[in-house]
Amino acid sequence: MEIRRFIEEVEKLNLLREVKGAHWNLEIGAITDLNAKRNKYTLLFDEIVDYPKGFRVLTGTLLDSRRVGLALGLTSNLNDLQLVTKLRERLNYANREYKSYDPIEVSDTPFLENVYRGENVNLFKFPAPKWHELDGGRYIGTADAVITKDPDSDWINVGAYRVMLVDKNKLAIFIEASHHGRLHIEKYLKQARKAPIAISFGPPLSLFIFAGMEVPYGVSEYNFAGAVVGERMKVFRGEVTGLPIPAESEIAVEGYITGEVTDEGPFGEFMGYYAGGRMKSPVIEVIRVYYRKDPILLGTAPSTSPYDYSYLRCPIRSAMIWDFLERAGVPNVKGVWAHEVGFSRAFIVISIKQTFAGHGTMVGHLVATSPLASYGGRYVIVVDEDIDPSDLNQVIWAMCTRSDPATTIDVIKNVNSTPLDPMAERRENVKEYVSSRAIIYAVKPFDKLIRNQFPTEVRPSEELVEKVTKKFNHLFSP
Fold it and tell me: What pTM was computed for the model?
């Protein structure tokens, strides 16, 4: 969904708040972080210190199931697990039909209202915040869509990577070793060619969402996101690189990566730490800048959970993991939730109806080492079907009563990791990072389960619950 229409819809839900007079230096970041931990509004910053009215920043866009559903063209009245169920339907469709959703090329778009070329490029024109007090610079790209192309095919990738201001016409970009955009860039550089790149700093929200997800190798996020929302995306061919830029972008740039590197970071990241430190990252030489009248920079401030976008990937990753398990042939998966407290990666719970001995082991090992859960991962918890995987109280209770530390925890070593992990040992090359994963089997022992020998839980029967809630409705009605 295009950002301006999204703002209109969020305002109807009484979830939008305008903030005037905040400073780009730390204040926007601090307000964004506090808001995510308290009232969870969508925040539109205007009249930012040092910038003219109309140069705006938008944060808090995808803080709950209502707004994620809205951004993906679903509905704004779904709870967490209902959203997962709906997303499974849409993701299954996208996996089958994405080839039918090639983007539509257009020759005109609102971001052509302002075009700057060559010497006129000045990226400091936009109120890119310094989000956190210990950040190494101002980050214009925290909720972006970075477009690259495989030099050996027609594959267009759209990723969400952090981008720091370096100079009026230069940016620094950090891309993890396993991410598709990095693979594209390295191919160009190995061929002694400069790598074309375009970035939308205010993309359609559905594209931003899937730019940060594990879309299958070789599949463009344009196609995949289009299939999920059921509408082909519109793109404009960049004047310099020819790369397809989202036509509904608020701000966009294009240029080249030549092999030059610069100091980038530290940046307060999604694990809640400044763990990456100061790194050498590729420089982007910006040749063109495009922006709409009264542009809106989409942004976010990662932090300790919950933070500004810690929720948005939870339902999508949950749906993807559930489908992954079913495609692998695992029976009787009853629910999946990738918890916000683990930034959708480090605390993943799968509910199963145990069907055979080792059922939980199969599920745990598949998820812990899968591309959907390995990056930034920590714990996979397998629970029985009577446990709601999205309810932390139920999950922790199951861990405390159905698992034994000596016998029901597996540890897997040497799983791919990230320099953003605060527990990681520093390495020269981002490709060297690995860490371990723990699988906790918080399920009833299968031999006792099939013999009905596990102790009975203390809870009223469904019939009794129905009777008393009806009889004493004044106590239990919302």
Answer: 0.88
